[in-house]
Amino acid sequence: MQTSSDRHEYPAHWEADVVLRDGGTARVRPITVDDAERLVSFYEQVSDESKYYRFFAPYPRLSAKDVHRFTHHDFVDRVGLAATVGGEFIATVRYDRIGAGGMPASAPADEAEVAFLVQDAHQGRGVASALLEHIAAVARERGIRRFAAEVLPANTKMIKVFTDAGYTQKRSFEDGVVRLEFDLEPTDRSLAVQYAREQRAEARSVQRLLQPGSVAVIGTGRTPGGVGRSILGNIRDAGYTGRLYAVNRAFPEDVGELDGVPARRSVRDIDGPVDLAVVTVPAERVPEVVTECGEHGVQGLVVISAGYAESGPEGRERQRALVRHARTYGMRIIGPNAFGIVNTSPRVRLNASLAPEMPRPGRIGLFAQSGAIGIALLSRLHRRGGGVTGVTGVSTFVSSGNRADVSGNDVLQYWYDDPDTDVALMYLESIGNPRKFTRLARRTAAAKPLVVVQGARHGGAAPPGHAVRATRLPHATVSALLRQAGVIRVDTITDLVDAGLLLARQPLPAGPRVAILGNSESLGLLTYDACLAEGLRPHPPLDLTTAASPEDFHAGLARALADDTCDAVVVTAIPAVGEGSAGDAALAQALRSAAATVPGKPVLVVHVELGGLAEALSAAASTAPQAAEEARPLPSQERPPAVEAPEGAHLIPAYPAAERAVRALAQAVAYAQWRRDAADPGKVPEYEDIDEKGAARLIGGLLARGQGLTLGTEETCELLGRYGIDVHRALPAPTPDDAVAAARTLGYPVALKATAPHLRHRADLGGVRLDLADEEQLRRAYAELTELFGKPDELRPVVQRMAPRGVDTVVRAVIDPAAGAVLSFGLAGAATQLLGDTAHRLIPVTDREATSLIRSIRTAPLLFGWRGSDPVDTPALEELLLRVSRLVDDHPEVVAVTLEPVVVAPRGLSVLGASVRLAPPPARDDLGPRTLPAY
Fold it and tell me: Helices 692-703 & 713-722, crossing angle to 10 degrees?
């Protein structure tokens, strides 16, 4: 359909799918000569008033000349974009490059006139705002830096589109027309506006899936059994509050209902709207179903059907075609190969999943890329008996299957302002867009806890069929960046549930001080040791003795909570001989009533085979969907009795092992500290001696030589010097005489180093000689090196003036195409490399983040006077980190920086080695217009 233009090839990379304000999607693409009929049809559906606002006069129809002008573009000086749904135009935007006096012009003119037209039926959906983002990105790519628009004063909607965009602008009024001029360079405000619109649109798109007013299950079998029939029964039995339909083209024409549900042969036969379609037909029939749903106005699809990317290359192409097909009609997809979705809200009560029973309502949101893991998590959250026995409920559950469209990022956008969700738990097998996920996670974690376990850490790939940009960062680095964003990173689904139970039921601890009490001295000591291992500060355990009654527990817990030196309490309990459910209930009531006296401190229970205690503490009966044999529903005679808690009572999480309870508590302590730190994140300092413009000129000149290069020593020193980073000179010494001459230039004492790749930074191999005080020592060291390691041209020896003694460290910065710019710090040496003791932060780094970066490595005590050594100058080290961060943030062409070693002395520091790599900066999706992942 698309053709090349008269001056440039058709810019296919401008095509994008976008989510609109109401949660629907639209396709944005360039307008071409093939669009003449679409343009005329679109214009005929625009009201006379909208036409008047566009052309400032009555303009009932487009002339042939108009159609030619609006469909013939060179994609440089004249560009038109259209938003389409179902292949038809719903809005257009165009720019024309202008010069002085507003006349048509070509580059280097950097201003363009922009104009919009939106079909009346689609006004208010945020189409114009989305088109403005995309046309602005196109204009910047073509060298246009400023837009001008003339708008009638009565066209308040369009004026608002421009004024709300967040760009720096000027406004004037002349001859009855409002003239707006605005720069296209993204600003903090324009990015904030864009992110806010993105959040509202993506949250709304998920809300339409999770809160539908009507659902059609397509593919319900005529006989009992089968996936479609099972899901239909699950939705019905859960008490879904909306309209429910069974759809199967094989139904006889006289069939009016199935299992008490209205039955139809096609979605087209349903009177009234259908918000959500659950698709269970075979994969080869799905395209037909998507077409029917799209034409009927269905808003979203949950595709249970398998046979897509998980089945190989053919299925991968089928999956891509599915997404493209659904987006044509503005629909979003969960799946394919999905387990389904659940919403326990009493306003909805939707169980459109393969889970045979509706989970209990609660405050935990659950997302899983794997259906098997998702149902196991649901079961573990709710079941009685082994594992985590504290019972809590779920607000929403999404199993995304192949995650072809709706992803964890979308669900995070929904949970962020969902009043029914207090804690978010996510099982992820990949993070397709780490930069965006980190941004969303940071915002979400500031409002509610986000706990993540990542599967396939040691060999995982992107979801099958999903086009994502790969990251070169190790998993440990990505995990560190997620923790920096406030994500509670755990390693197993057991830890995921443990942390979720605590965070959903108890307040955040104010600090790491833990009181321990219980009726088992041994269990108390185990808990004490676990606290120390997790970095907490436990008080000595209080042994209430095995004869302790519920009243003793109440009194002991009340005293511990009243203690100002205590931030949290862990209660350990073992059963008394002969006690049954009545004793469990009494103890649970005693603990709950004591906890209620100081509601601001968390309380956890470590129990050993206490039967019904956990259920009594949680005060809820299980209705969990069961997974596999271990979760088989118990016969009624095997179920422990549930004990109801008074309304408003604290629900106390119970754990079968001290280590699990303490690990969950430690994660809550770290998260609470992050929340406090996030309230005052610090600032990126300004340094008066930084020459940003000079560095930009230098980088531009160097990059003119080629696409990417590693700088030489002199160029590296010059560039770093522009940012106040001084590198100790190292003079080459190809002969002993050259070494002596270099030493005279630099001044004794000196160091002699071999810089060959296999010896560089390897003092442990003997390729470095230090504190050479005179010529005799220098010549002797030179002879030793050449005798041990080979000829000088193999060693590449250099001479460097000795730096003050201190601690050797390494500072690195790298731009990852997926995660963004990352600053790393660690001590130098093989031991650090072996242990992976390196800390990471996203750039730009604030002063507080630089301080925490230094202190977050395990070997940090070496910097602060370990075992009687002198503390080193950490403020100087923090300043160095901030300067490197500024360099990379100011100049994205600097794609890698390594400072090694950086010797930090008690006063000052010395950068003894440095390397810098330049390259054209990678594309930044977060600075461009809003788009859905491409297929």
Answer: 150
User: Could you give the C-alpha distances from 339 to 228, 319, 352, in angstroms and in order?
Assistant: 12, 16, 9
Distance, CA of 304 to CA of 310 (rounded, Å):
13
Residue 756: phi and psi, rounded to 5, are -60, 145
What sign has the CA pseudo-torsion 345, 346, 347, 350? positive
pTM here? 0.85
Looking up tokens 């602060």 gives 864
CA atoms of 738 and 793, how far apart (whole Å): 13
Whether residue 342 contacts residue 367, with contact meaning beta carbons closer than 8 Å, is answered with no
Which of the 8 DSSP states describes residue 751? E
44: CB partners within 8 A, 6+ apart = 61
Query: 626: which residues sit within 8 A by CB, 6+ positions away?
Result: 356, 357, 379, 383, 632, 633
The DSSP symbol for 575 reads: P
In 3D space, the residue among 495, 512, 649, 650 whose CA is nearest the CA of residue 568 turns out to be 512
pLDDT tens-place string over residues 302-346: 999 999 988 889 999 999 999 999 999 999 999 999 999 999 999
Largest CA distance in the chain: 107
Q: d(Cα 803, Cα 899) in Å, to the nearest integer?
A: 15
Q: How many CB atoms lie within 10 A of CB 463?
A: 23
Q: How is 22-41 classified by DSSP, letter by letter?
A: TS-EEEEEE--GGGHHHHHH
Non-local (6+) Cβ contacts of 99 within 8 A are 105, 109, 111
CA 755 to chain centroid, in Å, comes to 41
Measured CA to CA, the distance from residue 305 to residue 285 in angstroms comes to 10
- 808-812 mean pLDDT: 95
What's the CA gap between 143 and 8, in Å, rounded? Answer: 15
Q: Are 206 and 410 in contact (CB under 8 A)?
A: yes
Residue 169: other Cβ atoms inside 10 A: 16
Candidates 158, 50, 159, 34; CA nearest to 84 is: 34
Place of tokens 């008033």: 49
* In contact, 620 and 391? CB cutoff 8 Å: yes
- Number of helices followed by number of strands (H, E) in the chain: 27, 39
Report residue 18 CA to chain centroid gap.
Answer: 19
Helix (H) or strand (E) holding 581: helix 581-595
Handedness of CA 487, 534, 843, 459 (dihedral sign): negative
**DSSP secondary structure letter of residue 656:** S
Tens-place pLDDT, residues 34-88: 999 999 999 999 999 999 999 999 999 999 999 999 999 999 999 999 999 989 9
Give the residues across from 25 on adjacent strands: 19
Cα gap 181→97, rounded to integer Å: 14
Decide: 796 and 754 in contact? Cβ < 8 Å: yes
The Cβ-side half-sphere exposure at 508, using a 13 Å CA radius, reads: 18
